[in-house]
Amino acid sequence: MKTLDELLQEGVNGRRVLVRADLNVPLDGKNITDDGRIRAVAPTVKALAEAGARVVVCSHLGRPKGAPDPAFSLAPVAKRLGEVLGREVAFATDTVGTDAETKAVAQGDGDVLLLENLRFNKGETSKDDTERAEFAGQLAAFGDLYVDDAFGAVHRKHASVYDVAKLLPHYAGWLIAKEVEVLSKLTGKPEQPYVVILGGAKVSDKLAVIDNLLDKVDTLIVGGGMMFTFLAAQGHEVGSSLLEKDQVEVCKSYLARAAELGVELLLPVDTVTAAEFAADAEPLTVSVDAIPAERMGLDIGPASAKLFAERIAGAETVFWNGPMGVFEFPDYAAGTKTVAQALVDSDAFSVVGGGDSAAAVRTLGLPEDGFGHISTGGGASLEYLEGKTLPGLDALEK
Is 170 annotated as a binding residue? Predict the structure, then answer.
């Protein structure tokens, strides 16, 4: 695929460049609680603006129902993007309507305009190819060139991600180029020992990535809510912990396959339990073979965290996706923090797989530069590691 570096060499002064960004940031009302995605795409936008392009940025935010919804407006994002860029960012109160057209026409060289939420338009996410293509045509009218730097959306066959690339000369932004470079190392021949850490709520969300990586890793570590389905597959009682009964047999098959391959599939040996799912629930640490029937595990225990940290310390390559527990509750955040800190302390090439893992890094106050790479796309990074064809990347490669 062609990259932003090639485009800048060609020259963009006075040319209109439509940039698909992933500005889907968490909001508390109108306040941005994590600007990581804004900061991640800012270098691409800034480079284009400084090279004299007339930059029109588009993005989605949240899941509005194909119509304007003030709760999902990108207005606060425009303000923060301007602060990060150190230049004014104009904001259009619609996506492809009169205000967007008026402000786009008024742009001078080096100006940046952010359009309102793409998902305020049904055509953005439509399953109907004709409806999606029609909206893509309206978006493409804002650019002579198209740059996609929304890695967090490349696994979606949406108008702004897939169809626009068919209509304009297209390039991968610096963020997408970096993501592909990093993730391709994990699916190719990573330096050994290679450790993959998977957490999060459901094992069903991670089956495909386990299936694709199991013969590539030296150690697969499982924590988070998904660990209880694996523990049940080993014959443990898990109390009222999260359990996907329909996946127990699948987990048994992975345990058997790992043994056949000589891969260490490492599960927790203890867990921090609670009587209810609540931040103020009294924690009780127990062995995984002694979980009380009336309690649920909400974090890995300290012995497990130490064990996991030891494996990380001996690794050359580490991929982590999914927290080890309910890190939003202070009493159940220690496991996630220990694992994350072990990555920071390690000499390994470490990749954090976006989503809740990236949020945990920031929530728990860990240094972002302590990791080799923090992906901006949780779902996209997982699907890449599953070996799937991602529509957004496919469109850029054509």
Answer: no
- Give tens-digit pLDDT for 293-313: 999 999 999 999 999 999 999
Catalytic residue among 239, 301, 355, 377: 355
- The radius of gyration of the chain from alpha carbons, rounded to an integer in Å, stands at 22
Pairing of strands 27-28, 31-32: antiparallel
pTM (2 d.p.): 0.87
Say what the pLDDT of residue 238 is: 97
Which of 2, 39, 79, 202 is catalytic? The answer is 202
Q: What is the pLDDT of residues 367-377, one digit of tens each?
A: 888 999 988 88
CA-nearest of 158, 198, 169 to 22 is: 158
Give CA–CA dist 391/397, Å, rounded: 10
Q: pLDDT tens, 247-290?
A: 999 999 999 999 999 999 999 999 999 999 999 999 999 999 99
202 classed as catalytic = yes
Helix axes 355-363, 378-385, angle to 10 degrees: 130
Q: Which amino acid is at 354?
A: G
Give me the sign of the Cα torsion angle 209, 215, 217, 219.
Answer: positive
Active-site residue, selected from the candidate residues 15, 16, 20, 37: 37
Whether residue 316 is annotated as binding a ligand: the answer is: no
- Helix intervals (H) in the chain: 4-10, 36-50, 75-85, 98-105, 122-125, 129-140, 164-167, 174-187, 207-213, 227-233, 248-261, 302-313, 334-345, 355-363, 378-385, 391-397
Sorted by where each starts, the structural domains of the chain and their CATH numbers stand as 4-172 (3.40.50.1260), 181-386 (3.40.50.1260)
Verify whether residue 54 is a known catalytic residue: no
